[in-house]
Design brief:
- By secondary structure, the protein is of the alpha+beta class.
- It folds into 3 domains: 1-49, no CATH class; 50-150, Beta-Lactamase (2-Layer Sandwich); 156-192, no CATH class.
- The protein has helices at residues 37-49, 67-73, 91-107, 152-171, 184-192, and strands at residues 16-17, 27-28, 52-56, 111-118, 124-135, 141-150.
- The strands form 2 sheets. The chain has a 4-stranded antiparallel β-sheet with strand order 3-6-5-4, sandwiched between helices.
- The longest helix has 20 residues, at 152-171.
């Protein structure tokens, strides 16, 4: 039963992270003893909220390999130097994310941005990326957790809705009829027209 997935309601005592949603592979984790309900909830939350999860230290170096990173990118996370893991970002986005992370680390505050990450099939996907501090029990920051969610489909759907609205407005001669479908300027003119 070592491949059971605690994020899917399986026995948490098996010491595995939730399974990757695309490959179904369970991720081993070094838990001390049986997982608590809190840990079960944490793993379920991570699985539900993120496509990729990784840990960096305050100088930007990845601390450990990440199964979700490998599943999304098809390669292990680069741990051979500060910020080496940024290699999977679109070149234009690498500085953006590094600067956002560095600002968050200096301010000791979470940060969130969007950038394009290279998926294992060679296609860049727009992702919402968030970096949050993981503090020790005494309140000191000891590492940072990065999470990313692929939002490409949402962005494409929003762009499609915008294009459709623009085409509809163009077909009406550029008049925005608003939610009621009535031209407010014409309505006012009709109401003010003499008897």
């Amino acid at each position: 039963m070592s491949g059971e997935n605690p994020g899917k309601g399986k026995d948490m005592g098996q010491k595995h992270h939730p399974a990757d949603s695309q490959t179904g592979a369970a991720f081993p984790v070094a838990l001390m003893g049986e997982a608590t309900t809190f840990e079960q909830r944490f793993y379920a939350l991570v699985e539900a909220a993120a496509d990729l999860v990784w840990i960096i230290n305050s100088d930007g170096a990845a601390r450990e390999d990440s199964p979700s990173w490998r599943a999304f990118t098809g390669q292990p996370i680069k741990r051979d130097g500060e910020w080496a893991w940024l290699n999977i970002l679109a070149p234009d986005d690498q500085k953006l994310l590094r600067d956002a992370c560095m600002h968050a680390i200096r301010a000791q505050q979470p940060c969130q941005t969007e950038c394009r990450l290279l998926r294992r099939d060679g296609v860049y996907r727009t992702c919402s990326v968030r970096l949050v501090p993981v503090r020790s029990s005494d309140g000191n920051r000891c590492e940072w957790m990065g999470i990313a969610r692929d939002i490409t489909e949402q962005r494409l759907a929003a762009a499609k809705r915008t294009r459709r609205l623009e085409r509809e407005q163009e077909a009406r001669g550029g008049v925005d009829l608003g939610p009621s479908g009535i031209d407010p300027h014409r309505l006012v003119a009709d109401l003010n027209a003499p008897g």
